[in-house]
Amino acid sequence: MNEQAVAEGITRKDPRVEAAISHWAPRFVINGVPLTDFQEVTASIDRWEDWCSAWSARGAIHEELGNKALADGFKLSAGEHFTRAAVCYHFGKFLFVNDMEQMREAHMKAVACRNQSLPLLNPPGERVAIPYEGRHLYGNLRKPAGVAKPPIVVMCMGLDSAKEEMDDYENRFLQRGLATLAFDGPGQGEAEYDFGICPEYEKPVKAVIDHLETRNDVDTTRLGIWGVSLGGYYAPRAACVEKRIKACVALSGAYERSSSFEGRPIINVEAFRVRSKSANLEEAGKVAVRMSLKGLARNITCPIYILAGTKDRLTPHTQAEKLAAEVSGPCVLSVIEGGNHVVNNLWYRYRDQTADWMATQLDVAKR
Questions:
Q1: What is the pLDDT of residue 11?
Q2: pTM score, two decimals?
Q3: Interacting residues of 345 by C-beta distance below 8 A, sequence separation 6+
Q4: What topology does CATH give the domain 123-256+291-367?
Q5: What's the distance, CA 37 to chain centroid?
Q6: What is the CATH number of domain 1-122?
Q7: CB–CB of 362/178 below 8 Å?
Q8: Mind listing the pLDDT tens digit for each residue in 161-196?
């Protein structure tokens, strides 16, 4: 709080917290944070430095509810409580790169709670380790009930999203007979500590598909890819190269990035710098400029569904239009009037629709 505000008796929130309240509410709520939690937690925070601890405290409440339900033998309820706990812990850490120790502690709680929920869910899930460059990428694999060898959707995260945030998206695919593998790639989630952001995202996607082909419980001849935010660039980038991909969904992804971060929220910029393993913004800009589909998108021959919102402050809808103009395969371009980043404020305009579209492309009977 500045001296003038103190003198006037005015309580002013940190601009980073104000930005969180004004821009993130729809995303938090549709991805699993109860509305009251969002209102109460954000109302209690004046400084960004308190963000992670406040959300971790709320996550601990849901975690304890999960432990109580599990002790009482209510496995389904326990799975749901642990999933909500994971989302709260995740949103505590998702852009909190100003305190890496605190961020990682919250992150590990998010991962642990989601891992605890996986076998309790309906349908259940499993944690998978994917060999990559001498280490591993981690993902959550879930399969629809009653389907022996379902087609599968590989789910690509964004700059600040992680597999622990994907429950709502996963369920929409699962309900339509599609398996899902939400994974943390380089610079994302669990992999952000070992690997920097990788603009050439066809590399980790190849490792993921290679791993899936070693299994006999999913149909990799009917494999789609889906990406959100920065993942909305990663998914089509992989589809440019990886021809085992039969359909692609790109949600609010960039067609090309510049080396400049001017006009972007400072907490997002700092997260990009840290997760690209860059010492400064000049180095981060060199990573960002490698993120381009220009001249490559023509190699996308599989069907693609591209989403954008006209009120997106991070990725202008013109980026989606450029991608749609260049692809060679069948294309659906959906630009939602009034939609924010990833159109989370109008989620009902695309979440079921993209799941239906993907199921159709992968030859699953309508449900």
A1: 57
A2: 0.95
A3: 26, 309, 338, 339
A4: Rossmann fold (3.40.50)
A5: 20
A6: 1.20.1440.110
A7: yes
A8: 999 999 999 999 999 999 999 999 999 999 999 999
